[in-house]
Specification:
The complex is a heterodimer of chains A (774) and B (111).
Chain A: E1 15-18, E2 21-28, E3 38-45, E4 48-54, H1 67-70, H2 72-76, E5 86-88, E6 96-99, H3 102-120, E7 125-129, H4 138-147, E8 152-153, H5 164-173, E9 177-180, E10 200-204, H6 208-211, H7 219-226, E11 230-235, H8 240-243, E12 247-250, H9 256-269, H10 275-281, E13 282-283, H11 285-293, H12 297-304, H13 308-319, E14 324-328, H14 338-352, E15 361-364, H15 369-378, H16 383-386, H17 408-417, E16 425-429, H18 433-437, H19 441-449, E17 453-458, H20 463-468, E18 471-474, E19 483-485, E20 491-494, H21 506-517, H22 527-536, H23 547-553, E21 555-556, H24 564-567, E22 585-586, H25 590-595, H26 614-619, E23 622-626, H27 642-647, E24 652-656, H28 657-663, E25 670-674, E26 679-687, E27 694-697, E28 743-749, E29 770-771
Parallel strand pairs in A: 6-29, 7-8, 7-16, 10-11, 10-14, 11-12, 13-22, 16-17, 17-18, 23-27, 24-26
Antiparallel strand pairs in A: 1-2, 2-3, 3-4, 5-6, 5-18, 9-15, 19-20, 20-21, 23-28, 24-27, 25-26, 25-28
Chain B: E1 3-8, H1 17-26, E2 35-46, E3 49-58, H2 66-71, H3 76-80, E4 86-90, H4 91-96, E5 103-106
Antiparallel strand pairs in B: 1-4, 1-5, 2-3
The chains are: A alpha/beta (774), B alpha+beta (111).
């Protein structure tokens, strides 16, 4: 704990009293959602949350919190939360509801599921969940073991383009998952005698201080910087990290693989790689050199718009950098050629030799909470449940595997066409499907209209709930639910302190509905009992600990081991080496070779770019990218919090100063963004930070302060929603990746008077819907 | 004895946690701030060198969280700063820690 903090006020127990206020140590993971899960102190009085502070005793965040956690009191006590189950009154889109009981809601859902199953079969039921919902495993388990359908989707996310492509690539070439080691793996952090900070963080295509993506707290990198770590940043925008980097490569969206291959080319040609490590532990060096040969710095400059001399400088920098930790991001997933791009960036990291060493790119065995829990709950089910999963047989890397996770794009096709079988019921938990997760928003909205019965579970009335749901279930916020934070390290307890109306955690809804649908598979009495079972049976790294012990300790760090490829702790047979066919890191991937896809790092031009579609680019001259995070919002969440909207009232799109000047656009002007697929408006943020010729438009925008009725625009669902300009079903044969971040567009000032007026939205902070029987 | 806030803005990422923590602690309404970020850049000051800095600046509403400090807590901005770039204490002690460029010592009020 830091100097100046009174230990009597920040005690070691998990719960204590301060006068009439109860203080409870917990972890805030979701909802509202987050990818990180900081340790917090919840202060409650008379069954009400009155204060939150960061837990100064936690090595995870050392008392720090982001502004969204600091807004938890406002979120939890928000007057427009959904606190009771709702049944639709009138037509979809009228946003009129009657409150019913949980028992009534469950009975309706179970009865509909029985009807669909009898008439069409269980696979005609689909489920979905949003990202960041305590690791998003709940609906897939409910689908598989409860409804007995293999068709679960992350809200129609195309090609599972969020971390999954990179996980797939890592498992193919390393045989396991790797993350940047920024002193987060030990409770001692920088004081752990085995630890040494990275010399360089290779921060490729992400802005982790804002996003905290992939279970990684971005400010851990800032901690490393305070200890002397340097930065190497690859991004389309000049982020704060880019401005503080030794090396910054500013590239055209979708060309990461070319830049990575260019760096590999120079590192190999000039002997700038860790030869000893690669000779001993890497398979495919010659094939990589052959592939990289075509990517001279001059060729890469033409593709990526990064000057050739910068590529050379970057490679030479890495060649003498010391220990390099790769922290990479979503743009690698949200290109159509995601797998080849992930391999290319991983290859750069491998050439530095900083693999599974302190401060390097290290193997974590306990990153698998999603698949572990799913498998634990699903393994008792017969093969017939998994058979006929939508999308099977179409994609090289998706025909194997047990999981109940289907391809969102193929669920969409089935909803639209009824082939290979119709979709008759949807169960969506904490996903605002056509605002955030899916591209081609209007198409996805229309597709949900073809599904006769849809359940949406969420914190607030969203466009997805108001526009598509027949039943809405209330979801609990972080301090109202039991949970475990099990994704990488440490394992953390999530404590339920409050009960708000009928609101339940996603896990509890899964358990309660599961008990009605298929009681044999949901044999736990309570969520903590289920979580304890899960912890004890994690196939990757079981924790022999009871729920009460975890709660008492708040968090548990398993002992971390480095250089596991030398000790045999990485392979299934306990032999030294990596968990691959050759026992080495396969930069030539034998598994991909057998699956019939390119076994090497590869670059391909995005489908729709100024280079691949020059005719269309005459009409739409800008490269359009999207998805950069904001401090104030987690994807489509937090828009109904007045405090967050004071900081960030309107949707923004970044445009380069010179581009804006040529178009007569000034900072703060409302502009139309338009392409082949749609047209929306956002406010221009004119700056030198964004690469010329590129637009970065924010995602997840809707306006809870507006009317939620369809005739009034469904909370402004399609006004500023960038997914009106992105598309579904545009993926490579591998079956991973999407083109969300690599579209094109034109931009022009809104001059028809339809733009919102004022600095702050009218009615901001509200999120209303009509209840007829309240 | 004057107390102050030492900001090492080499490590301020502009996360707004200080501003938000302050608002929540003091119940400040829209448009009211006890501390406010100043942004410099992004500006290409010379080839390959970008200036992009944030500097949290306390206002006259800042009382250095006198009530919190009395109990044995840190000012909430310092407690929650994600970059761990803010320190609170007596100005003479803080001044001794000014050992690099991009540091600033604020004395927003006399306690």
């Amino acid at each position: 704990m830091r100097k100046g903090m009174n230990p009597d006020l920040y005690r070691e127990e998990w719960q204590w009293q301060e006068g009439d206020v109860t203080v409870t140590r917990s972890c805030q993971w979701s909802g509202p959602g987050c990818h990180q899960g900081c340790n917090v102190l919840f202060y409650t009085k008379d069954d009400k949350l009155v204060k939150i502070e960061g837990d100064p005793r936690s090595p995870v965040n050392e008392g720090r919190l982001c502004m969204r956690c600091l807004a938890m009191v406002e979120a939890v006590n928000h007057p427009d939360r959904i606190l009771h189950p709702l049944r639709r009154v009138g037509e979809r889109g009228e946003n009129m509801w009657e409150e019913i009981t949980m028992d009534e809601a469950y009975a309706i859902i179970a009865e509909k599921a029985r009807e669909v199953t009898e008439e069409y079969g269980p696979k005609s039921i689909v489920t979905g969940i949003g990202t960041g919902r305590n690791a998003t495993w709940q609906t897939s388990s409910l689908a598989f073991a409860g409804f007995q359908t293999p068709n679960d989707t992350a809200g129609m996310l195309s090609g599972d383009c969020c971390y999954t492509p990179r996980l797939q690539a890592m498992n193919a070439i390393f045989g396991s998952d790797f993350i940047a080691d920024c002193a987060q793996l030990s409770a001692e952090r920088f004081d752990d005698p085995e630890y040494r900070r990275p010399d360089v963080v290779l921060n490729w295509a992400c802005n982790p201080v804002v996003s905290n993506a992939d279970g990684f707290f971005g400010h851990w990198i800032v901690d490393c910087m305070q200890h002397g770590t340097k930065l190497f940043v690859v991004d389309t925008r000049v982020t704060w990290m880019a401005a503080h980097a030794d090396i910054f490569l500013q590239l055209r969206p979708g060309t990461d693989a070319a830049v990575a291959l260019g760096i590999c080319h120079v590192m190999l040609e000039e002997d700038l790689y860790d030869k000893e490590f690669c000779d001993r532990w890497v398979y495919g060096m010659e094939a990589l050199a052959e592939r990289a040969a075509a990517y001279t710095p001059e060729v890469v400059e033409k593709i990526s718009w990064v000057p050739a001399e910068k590529i050379v400088e970057a490679a030479r920098y890495l060649g003498s950098a010391g220990t390099v930790a790769l922290q990479w991001g979503l743009p690698l997933d949200q290109t159509k050629w995601a797998v080849g791009a992930s391999l290319a960036v991983a290859a750069v990291e491998v050439l530095t030799g900083s693999i599974d060493v302190p401060g390097g790119f290290v193997n974590v065995k306990y990153g698998h909470v999603q698949s572990d829990i799913r498998e634990n709950i699903c393994k008792g089910m017969g093969k017939q449940v998994r058979e006929g999963r939508l999308g099977d047989g179409k994609y090289a890397l998706r025909t194997v595997g047990f999981g109940p996770h289907s391809m969102g794009d193929d669920i969409l096709l089935a909803m639209e066409t009824g082939e290979p079988y119709p979709i008759k019921m949807g169960f969506l938990c904490s996903t605002n499907s056509f605002i955030n997760m899916a591209g081609e928003s209007k198409r996805v909205y229309e597709a949900w209209q073809k599904v006769p019965f849809v359940v949406v579970c969420d914190l607030f009335m969203t466009p997805t709930a108001a526009g598509c749901a027949d039943i809405v279930l209330p979801i609990a916020m972080g301090c109202e639910r039991w949970g475990i934070r099990a994704w990488f390290t440490p394992l953390r307890a999530i404590n339920k302190i409050l009960q708000a109306g009928d609101a339940r955690g996603d896990e509890q809804i899964m358990l309660e509905l599961g008990q009605i649908l298929n009681p044999d598979m949901f044999f736990w009495d309570t969520v903590p009992e289920m979580n304890e079972y899960v912890m004890k049976n994690l196939s990757s790294m079981p924790f022999d600990i009871t729920w009460e012990e975890l709660q008492e300790k708040t968090l548990v760090y398993p002992k971390f081991q480095y250089r596991k490829y030398e000790t045999g702790d990485m392979r299934f047979d306990k032999q030294p080496g990596f968990n691959t066919t050759t026992g080495r890191i396969e930069l030539y991937c034998t598994m991909y070779d057998s699956a019939g896809i390119d076994p090497l790092p590869s670059f391909k031009e995005p489908t729709c770019s100024p280079i691949s579609a020059p005719e269309e680019a005459k009409e739409y001259p800008f490269v359009l990218t999207t998805g950069r995070r904001s401090w104030e919002f987690f994807h489509s969440e937090h828009r109904q919090l007045k405090s967050m909207r004071e900081f960030h009232p309107w949707p923004l799109c970044e445009i380069n100063t010179q581009d804006a000047e040529e178009l007569g656009i000034r900072d703060g002007d409302w502009v139309y963004l338009e392409n082949q697929w749609g047209k929306i408006m956002q406010k221009a943020e004119v700056s030198d930070a964004i690469l010329r010729g590129t637009i970065m438009a924010e995602h997840g925008w809707w306006f809870p302060e507006r009317s939620g009725k369809l005739e009034d625009g469904l909370y402004g669902a399609f006004d500023s929603n960038i997914n009106c300009l992105t598309i579904q079903n545009d993926m490579a044969t591998a079956g991973y990746g999407s083109s969300y971040k690599t579209q094109i567009c034109k931009v022009y000032k809104v001059e028809d008077g339809t733009e919102p007026k004022g600095d702050m939205p009218e009615n901001v902070g509200r999120n209303q819907f009509e209840v007829v029987n309240r | 004895m004057l107390n102050g806030l030492l900001i090492n803005y080499n490590f301020c990422t502009g996360c707004h946690s200080c501003e938000m923590a302050c608002k929540v602690e003091h119940g400040y309404q829209e448009g009211e701030w006890g501390i406010k970020l100043t942004q410099q850049g992004p500006d290409l000051v010379k080839e390959d060198t970008w200036e992009f800095n944030f500097i949290p600046t306390p206002t006259d509403r800042c009382d250095l969280c006198a009530d919190r400090v009395r109990e044995g807590r840190l000012p909430t901005c310092v407690h929650h700063c994600q970059g761990l770039c803010m320190q609170y204490g007596p100005v003479d002690e803080l001044a001794k820690q000014m050992t690099s460029s991009h540091m600033v010592l604020f004395v927003p009020c006399e306690e």
